[in-house]
Amino acid sequence: MEVMRQAPERVTRLALIDTNPNSPKPEQVKTWEQQIKRVKNHQFQEVTEKQFFPHLIHENSKQDPKLVQSIKEMFKTVGAEGFINQLKANQTRPKGKDVLPVMTCPVLVLAGKEDALCPPEIHEEMAEIIPNATLVFIENCGHLSTLEQPEAVTDAMQDWLRS
User: Are both 102 and 149 inside the same structural domain?
Assistant: First the structure.
């Protein structure tokens, strides 16, 4: 969305996947502040695996040991400092809704149907605001749609690119 704000002429197509154009709500900022404190208090694994992870993927996907391990490895790779930086970046995320109505290129708005972090209503609203939007929901899928349902996401993107 920031690229569209700064240089829309450089974008010919855009896919917005499991995203949110809104600034964070006060309760989100409060939760992130608490998580930052806990991570700084050497509770990184507990925060990522107990507080963060449960909201990332669909319940059915939590039974997939390979996917779960992959996500846990991603947490380790990002590390405590990277995680804190991501939370701080989210806290200061600018409102992106103002750029949505001026997107003139084709836009795919795609999300996991059960995305708990960026719920379907947010994606429906974006698709209504964006003039050339195509809205696609991936069933039985949460926030990490590209990891959870990579084939379905790829199929949706290929269909959209062909249209």
Answer: yes
User: How much helix, strand and coil, in percent to the nearest 5, is found in the chain?
Assistant: 60, 10, 30
Number of domains in the chain: 2
Instruction: Look at residue 96 in the predicted model and tell me its pLDDT.
Output: 83
Quote the pTM value. 0.90
Same-domain pairing of 77 and 129: no
Digit-coded pLDDT (tens) for 31-77? 999 999 999 999 999 999 999 999 999 999 999 999 999 999 999 99
Three-state SS for 96?
A: coil
Q: Structural domain of residue 64, as residue ranges?
A: 26-91
Tell me how far apart the alpha carbons of residues 17 and 20 are, in angstroms, rounded to a whole number: 9
**In terms of Cα–Cα distance, which of 13, 91, 88, 83 is closest to 52?**
83
Q: Are residues 38 and 58 both part of a single domain?
A: yes
State the CB neighbour count (10 A cutoff) for residue 137.
18
Sign of CA dihedral 111, 116, 121, 123: negative
Question: Shortest CA distance to 150 belongs to which of 75, 63, 57?
Answer: 57
Of 118, 116, 117, whose CA–CA distance to 126 is shortest? Answer: 118
